[in-house]
Design a protein that fits this description.
It is a single chain. With 244 residues, the protein is α/β, with parallel strands linked by helices. The chain has 2 domains: 58 residues; 127 residues, no CATH class. Strands 1-7-6-2-5-3-4 form a 7-stranded mixed beta sheet, sandwiched between helices. Strand 3, helix 5 and strand 4 form a beta-alpha-beta unit.
Length: 244
Amino acid sequence: MAYAIQWVRSLIYVITVYLTIAVVGIALFPWALVSRRGARVACMSVCRFVKWVAPVMIGLRMETRGTPPDYECIVASKHQSFLDVFMVFSAVPAGKFIMKRVLMYSPIVGQYGLRIGCIPVDRGKRSTAIKQMVEGVKKGTATPGQLIIYPQGTRIAPGVNAPYKVGTAVLYEQLNQPCVPVAANVGLFWPKRGIYRKQGTAIVEFLEPIPPGLPRDQFLSLLEERIETASNRLNEEAGFHAPH
């Protein structure tokens, strides 16, 4: 019975979130087209709404730990579900993502992405994507801010091992910027797929920055060690112990 009630609450919450995204996106679209600030205000408003109503509607609290960066850097985040996108983006002042080029042709989503500084790349062509990103930054065509990337490349459920891809290390090496690792346990409460949302406290934690200049292999090993160790700690804090 308790599960069924929480599932219904989760369904109402999910519908509310998507309706809010649509309403805010359409209402502020004219402002976003003429002002980068308008696009960022719209995106931040949605993120804050998602975080604000969750405790009331589904009993899910959200907590950000550590010190989010306010300088030019790479933010390498553990990616477990859509929720960490909201939480990490809303924690930094000028977040931006690498965006699939096909999204450019989406009437609203693509334009918001471009207006906040996301950089379109060709999916499936990783070497080309990295080259496009690096060239965009070096030429000054990319909007300054915090580049949020997912070193494992996709959403990974808690307790599942997946390799860290070399693309993050290449960007770190060529952009010569510090990298801020981010750990998370959000997948325990907001899964990759499905409606059901669990009660509890979802956490993202900004970890100690990695300064520029490390060799590629050393950087990638350090990044993985920091993110995985901290994420496992957050999982255990929430009562989840990954199988060995």
